[in-house]
């Protein structure tokens, strides 16, 4: 075990023209698997002074596309700047500002005596794209609130998949590769100490797998990579008896059971339902928290938490309404007890550390599982679980109930990330299997060849190549597949 992040030498962000996404797995795992509290030593919030809390996260992403002048890989943001007259591309400037502005808002609010909090979720490709574009100004602004001890207690970074892959349709062997690639690249930008503080995970599109084996491998990968909790969408989970959850403002214990009968669990904070960006832009979680009172968990009375995440840059409400509403809320809290009593904002890890220091134990949290799993477990004997029995149960359920599926659930119920996208999913699965056949165990992960192939594997799994429908975006996916296959 390495003693501390301080003993490690800093990583280059770019190696051989590629983002630094592999090769330091041993160091990454040593840094992220340390148990020291992250927020407790610096938090200015005392549990006994507060009745309810809220936490907001801003999700930021731009895909990487093969659309540079020479067909090279560039950020979609760069493409927007270069083609301002297409579609919504005139928003490139406002988007770039949104990626940077927390670096201005947090220092400004702190200097005015406020006690702000924000959680940030940036995909690996967005961070790489900013570097490719030479937008050091944005990265430096983010470094200020991430690394400067004056501002770091107000900001929490959430880990995610490196290239915004939705987990239920990501090949299982690649889930951990995305998680580690994001961690290594984050450490290259912000340093090992900053990485050691990343303890919460934000799944792209809030997409939670409900296939027992995918969920189990996902939770196992999260825990192996040092994560203590993840954000889940309210309607993507159910109680262990198949009911809608009734304590959405308390942390839950998400139970993952695989088809071999093994179980594993992780803490989940619940993102409540509703129009995500609008709720965040108008600071609705703060106003909802004002209606709540402490609740009992185990033997401890704790403040409930309203958790919400929305795109940090997308749509008029985020670009225009959010800055004013964000600042107004923190000033209101500052005027009603210095922002440290009554209803206050928190970061997710800060909240969990505070309630656990007060005697709350994860085993006391209400339990949950992904929506639809109760139907599976009703069909099979839990005493003698076999993969075949689970697959048979799934097949029978699909036949008897046209609404049943194991594609997982995300922030929206009206979009499938699977149906109608065979032309992207087949190459994606093919390339992944080729990648593991040809490179696993055969090439060191710090070799340029491995890193290059890994990049194409991760990029091909970006959800945008499905979310934006057939056409240019599925063509991008096919081109990435073609180049990746040539490499292999």
Automatic annotation (TrEMBL):
<keyword id="KW-0378">Hydrolase</keyword>
<protein>
    <submittedName>
        <fullName>Glycosyl hydrolase family 57</fullName>
    </submittedName>
</protein>
<dbReference type="InterPro" id="IPR052046">
    <property type="entry name" value="GH57_Enzymes"/>
</dbReference>
<dbReference type="InterPro" id="IPR011330">
    <property type="entry name" value="Glyco_hydro/deAcase_b/a-brl"/>
</dbReference>
<dbReference type="GO" id="GO:0005975">
    <property type="term" value="P:carbohydrate metabolic process"/>
</dbReference>
<dbReference type="GO" id="GO:0016787">
    <property type="term" value="F:hydrolase activity"/>
</dbReference>
């Amino acid at each position: 075990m390495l003693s501390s992040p301080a003993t490690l030498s800093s990583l280059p962000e770019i190696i051989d023209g590629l983002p630094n996404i592999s090769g330091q797995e041993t160091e990454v795992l040593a840094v992220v698997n340390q148990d020291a509290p992250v927020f407790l030593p610096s938090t200015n919030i005392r549990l006994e002074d507060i009745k309810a809390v809220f936490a907001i996260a801003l999700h930021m992403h731009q895909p990487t596309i093969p659309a540079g002048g020479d067909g090279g890989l560039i950020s979609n943001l760069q493409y927007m700047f270069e083609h301002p007259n297409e579609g919504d591309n005139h928003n490139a400037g406002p988007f770039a500002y949104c990626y940077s502005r927390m670096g201005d808002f947090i220092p400004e609010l702190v200097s005015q005596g406020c006690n702000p909090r924000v959680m940030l979720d940036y995909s690996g490709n967005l961070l790489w794209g900013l570097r490719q574009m030479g937008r050091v100004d944005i990265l430096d602004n983010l470094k200020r609130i991430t690394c400067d001890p004056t501002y770091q207690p107000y900001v929490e970074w959430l880990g995610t998949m490196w290239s915004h892959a939705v987990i239920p349709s990501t090949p299982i062997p690649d889930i951990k590769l995305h998680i580690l690639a994001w961690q290594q690249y984050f450490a290259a930008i912000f340093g090992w100490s900053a990485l050691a503080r990343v303890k919460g995970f934000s799944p792209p599109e809030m997409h939670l797998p409900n296939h027992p084996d995918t969920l189990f491998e996902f939770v196992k990968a999260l825990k192996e990579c040092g994560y203590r909790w993840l954000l889940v969408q309210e309607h993507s989970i159910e109680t262990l008896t198949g009911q809608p959850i009734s304590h959405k403002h308390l942390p839950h214990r998400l139970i993952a059971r695989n088809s071999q009968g093994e179980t594993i669990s992780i803490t989940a904070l619940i993102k409540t339902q509703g129009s995500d960006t609008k709720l965040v832009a108008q600071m609705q979680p703060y106003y909802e928290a004002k209606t709540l009172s402490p609740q009992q968990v185990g033997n401890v009375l704790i403040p409930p938490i309203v958790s919400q995440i929305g795109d940090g840059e997308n749509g008029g409400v985020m670009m225009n309404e959010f800055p004013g509403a964000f600042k107004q809320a923190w000033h209101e809290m500052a005027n009603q007890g210095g922002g440290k009593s009554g209803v206050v904002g928190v970061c997710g890890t800060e909240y969990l550390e505070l309630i656990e220091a007060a005697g709350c134990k994860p085993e006391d949290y209400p339990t949950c599982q992904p929506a639809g799993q109760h139907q599976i477990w009703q069909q099979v004997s839990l005493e003698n679980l076999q993969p075949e029995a689970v697959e048979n149960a799934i097949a029978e359920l699909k036949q008897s109930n046209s609404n049943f599926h194991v594609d997982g659930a995300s922030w929206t119920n009206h979009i499938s990330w699977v149906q109608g996208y065979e032309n992207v999913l087949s190459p994606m699965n093919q390339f992944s299997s080729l990648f593991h056949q040809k490179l696993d165990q055969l090439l060191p992960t710090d070799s340029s060849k491995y890193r290059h192939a890994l990049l194409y594997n991760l990029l091909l799994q970006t959800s945008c190549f499905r979310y934006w429908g057939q056409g240019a975006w599925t063509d991008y996916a096919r081109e990435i597949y073609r180049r990746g296959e040539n490499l292999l």
